[in-house]
Amino acid sequence: MNKIIDAWHSDLAWNFRNSPVAVVSFALVFVLVLAVIFAPVIAPHDPFDPSTLNLINGFSQPMTPNTYTGDVFLLGSDDQGRDVFSTILYGMRISLFVGVFAVAFAMILGITLGLIAGYVGGWTETIIMRIADVQLTFPSILVAMLIFGIVKGVIPVEHRDQMAIWVLILAIGLGEWVQFARVVRGATLVEKNREYVQAARLIGRVRWVIMIRHILPNVLSPVLVIATISLALAIIAEATLSFLGVGAPPTQPSLGTLIRIGQGFLFSGEWWILLFPALTLLTLALSVNMLGDWLRDALNPKLR
Question: Where are the bilayer-spanning segments (predicted)?
Fold first, then answer.
């Protein structure tokens, strides 16, 4: 109980309570995550159950009874009669799942390589950082597309749709690890010369114990900031790949897939099929990004 009270009165908590941008961004993210978790309960229909679809309900306008069936859809329906609100909830599930796991994979890989490069040094550091420098010369979305194409080409055709989401996570994660590695390596170069690390060496601690138990806890603050901002970038990267048709399969459409589908009907007057998924993606990415910006400023001692 005392720890909760101390956390509530900490500088970070005070900064959060007095930042309208942080409060609003956190509230939006919290609501969207809750909507994703409870999508089966909130969604009026299961958009991926063919038995619940009625093609006569196709292209129903938002909050307007269908001419033939009289059914009303909050955000309208698409060409197959699927409720757009339900497809957004389930599509956001895929986008958040890919974003969170891709960032987690990139963070684990980047922290590991950054610790090794910063602490071990020598040729190990040179090889790791030169690979990182080469990867930085290419846009991360192109790296993700390349990795996605290579890995998907290796997987047998009959398993591609089942493995597409995991391949997408791997591709985005391998495209985003460099930022984590560079930051952790720089922080490790500073921390490894501190007295507590030298004391750990003197008492005979092995390298991996020093890196994990002593250095790692002291380099996590900037990593958390990068992870928050990278989550927004990963969500956008997933949406971009799915919009280009090389991401989530049609059987598991994400927000990017829904936007791609809606774009085909934009000029025929069915604007809601594109607008609402696009607004959801914008709200999700922007709120996560603004929360990351606040966290970066709050943890920066030079701005206090």
Answer: 21-43, 94-120, 132-151, 163-184, 215-237, 271-295
Please identify which residue in the block is written with the tokens 């974003």.
99
pLDDT, one tens digit per residue, over 86-135 is: 999 998 988 899 999 999 999 999 999 999 988 888 898 889 989 988 88
159 Cβ contact list (under 8 Å, min separation 6):
none
* Gap between the Cα atoms of 66 and 54, Å rounded: 11
Secondary structure of residue 56 in the 3-state scheme = helix
Q: How far is CA 228 from CA 107, 289, 290, in A?
A: 11, 7, 9
15 pLDDT more than 80: no
Pick from 226, 238, 225: nearest CA to 169: 238
Closest CA to 294 of 19, 7, 50, 11: 19
Backbone angles phi, psi at 300, to 5 degrees: -90, 110
Task: For residue 83, list its beta bridge partners.
Answer: 77
pLDDT, average across residues 170-178: 87
Residue in the structure block whose two tokens are 């900490």: 10
Q: How many Cβ atoms sit within 10 Å of the Cβ of residue 146?
A: 14
Give the total number of structural domains in the chain.
Answer: 1
pLDDT value of residue 10: 67
**Cα distance between residue 149 and residue 73, in whole Å:** 38
DSSP single-letter state for residue 34:
H
Per-residue pLDDT tens for 24-45? Answer: 888 999 999 999 889 888 888 8
- Contact criterion met (CB below 8 Å) for 288 and 224: no
Q: In angstroms, rounded to a whole number, what is the distance separating the alpha carbons of residues 151 and 166? A: 10
Residue 53 sits in a domain whose CATH number is 1.10.3720.10
Q: Which domain holds residue 44?
A: 2-303
Hey, which residues does 77 pair with through a beta bridge?
A: 83
Q: Are 240 and 256 in contact (CB under 8 A)?
A: yes
Backbone φ and ψ for 211, nearest 5 degrees, come out as: -65, -40
